[in-house]
Amino acid sequence: MKITRLNDTTFFADLDEIDKWLACRGFRQRDRLRAYKANIEEMIRREQGAHPAQVFARVKAAGRITEILTSYVEGIEFVNALTCLRGKQIAIPDELLRKVLDGPRDAAQEDNKSNQGRNAMFELLMGAMAARADLRPILGQANPDVEFQFQGRRVFMECKRVMSKRAIVDRISEAIRQLAKRVDSGKADIGLVAICISRLIHQGNGYWNVDVPSPDVPDHFLSQFLQWIIARLDNRLQTLQQPSVSGIVFYVSSPFRVPNIGYTPATQGMVYPMTTNSADTDFLTALEGALEL
After folding, report:
1. Is 262 inside a domain boundary?
2. Number of domains in the chain
């Protein structure tokens, strides 16, 4: 994983440009975007005058650590996703953007009544992942959340986020029922459930807080976490097998602190096959590579 110091990127300029673009499209509710920028800038300023551990302790004591560290992941993912989708000229429906901008600034304040903003954000991320592979995704449909073609086959993706480990199987089951309405296995359609489990990686105080000695460590840690989750769900997932779903995309992201770079998000994903059909498993392997999970 290549990690770049935020100051060496165009992140802040890109965020400002996206803010102006959204304003031109008529969106007035853009407070979360401004909070992302302000929070990241605040942490950079704080760390210039004190040791990072002291900064973290002070921000945590003020009850702001989850909001601020969320800004690194959500802000950077939001900028990267929108920059990609706009650059690839992918249509982004107003209703989807309206949902993305909704919700509390602090992810720790999110509940089942206020989670639609971050749920929609996950749809945007999955769409951008497909767009980077030049798969021309269709976004904002009632069902599925994301649609594209790969190797001549239609792929239908339902995107879900979970706020507890207990909810994973229920959310996957819900997505499978939704996919059954669109997937036609007779036409070689592929149904995928994309499940975001980032909230599960939070460590007591809200997020993983550790200095990592190498940029490779976050990827390894997140990969191990995904494998741990999947191993504990394996038996239950096998009972959910249906013709409408060929695989489950598990996705996780979390901020890590790299010395001399600062806080930066790391992401990891992997495909769990829900089929024993060799042609479909080969397809999923190829798709996993194309999406760079």
Report:
1. yes
2. 1
Residue 143 DSSP code: S
71 assigned to some structural domain: yes
In a domain, residue 1? The reply is no
Report residue 287: phi and psi, to 5°: -65, -40
H helices present in 138-240, as ranges: 168-179, 216-238
Q: Tokens representing 95?
A: 């209703």
Backbone φ, ψ for residue 9 (5° rounding): -115, 180
Range of the domain at 224: 6-290
Strands (E), the chain: 138-139, 146-150, 153-161, 190-196, 247-258, 262-273
DSSP-derived secondary structure for 24-80? HTT----HHHHHHHHHHHHHHHHHHHS-HHHHHHHHHHTT-HHHHHHHHHHHHHHHH
Of the pLDDT bands very low, low, confident and very high (cuts 50, 70, 90), residue 8 is low
In a domain, 263, yes or no: yes
**Measured at the alpha carbon of residue 138, what is the angle toward residues 226 and 286, in degrees to the nearest 5?**
45
**Per-residue model confidence as pLDDT tens digits over 115-130:** 899 999 999 999 999 9
Structure tokens at 76: 């950077």
